[in-house]
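We modelled the chain as a single entity of 431 amino acids. Its sequence is:
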Amino acid sequence: MLNTVWQQARGLTKDQRNAFIAAYLGWTMDAFDYFLVVLVYSEIADEFHVSLTDMAFLTTVTLIMRPVGAFVFGLWADKRGRRTPLMVDVLFYSVVGFACAFAPNYAVLLVLRLLYGIGMGGEWGLGAALALEKIPAEKRGFWSGMLQGGYSFGYLLAALAFLFIEPVFGWRGLFAFSLLPALVALFVRSRVGESEAWQASAKANSTPARKIFRNPVVLKRFVYLVLLMTAFNLMSHGTQDVYPTFIKKGLGMTPTTAIWIAVVYNVGAMIGGPLLGAYSERFGRRRMIVIAGIAALPIVPFFALSRIAGLLALSSFLMQVCVQGAWGVIPAHLNELSPDAIRGFYPGVTYQLGNCIAALNLPLQESLASHYSYQTALMVTVIPTLVLMVVLTALGKEARGRRFGTDDPPDVAPATPAAPPTAGGAPAAST
């Protein structure tokens, strides 16, 4: 097990490491800022005298606007390269995120969160494309999982910031603090070279995106990936967004207890992503996602119905190993299924459109909790989502081991079990 992980983890060049670190930090900032709202939205609701349902809409508008950012920055990146759009994007969302600390009322904060959604919409797709285009194909699974783990690390940082900053500076201090890691991400990104795969594909293929989408395979796959990302985002948001509030308000535990449980399950998430990502390189992308989804199902009753802090911590830890383990495969999976000429646009927009549809998750769970209970809200939303994610994944295709920048056709055969890498480190055959 550890040998498989180690083989993929080692041997990156300085430029490849910088590209990964920049993408990781950008994705960390995305989660950090998003979960700041999740962790303090009851406090903000009290200050602005609005309901929790109205506060949940803050996360909804952020998610709704992300496809706009993915569309704009993605098209720009496919025409002009990854590096400059990413630098502009980081500057934009850093300023907007910092401004949230000074919002005088709910309406202004709502507009700022809307703008922030545009900035963060461009981050995931472009950052993942730049990093994974630089990382060797045979190491892509592990680094895909590590990259996705940046989301959990951001949540972990938000939880720790809540523990140590919020008691002193309040929720506004949390948003002001978010400027610092964003600027660190900008500094690292300034040291990353342009994507060689983009340069190769830009020379070989200058076809506009609208013509590429006339290919029925490309269009059909786009719709499929939006549906798949909807299921994935419902799964992750459904098991994370309402959980701290469930522990505090649903079970009557202290905010500190809720935050430490969040720390525990984000450690599980950071373990699951690279582990399942690495094994997806050996056994296939879809197979590892399906295994993770099926393994999560028997955990749901303990995750949703436990009333003891220890059981909540253990069950949520195992749940996030599975949930974020499945997610760890996704950056590689989406980029491998994307045509070279529109890789800046294609993964990010499919991901963010799915995220947009899944934006109804938190208001839905809060509504169910207000009418029934948080336990009911978790059970009736998480179980169907896991089943949907497993079914959609099983029906899809994959292109594991694909070499970026070689004009591979976007249509690939259904995935079949693959042989492990050879002793010389050659990747398993594409499926």
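As a brief sanity check on the tokenised model: Residues 159 and 259 are 6 Å apart (CA to CA). The two ends are 22 Å apart (CA to CA).
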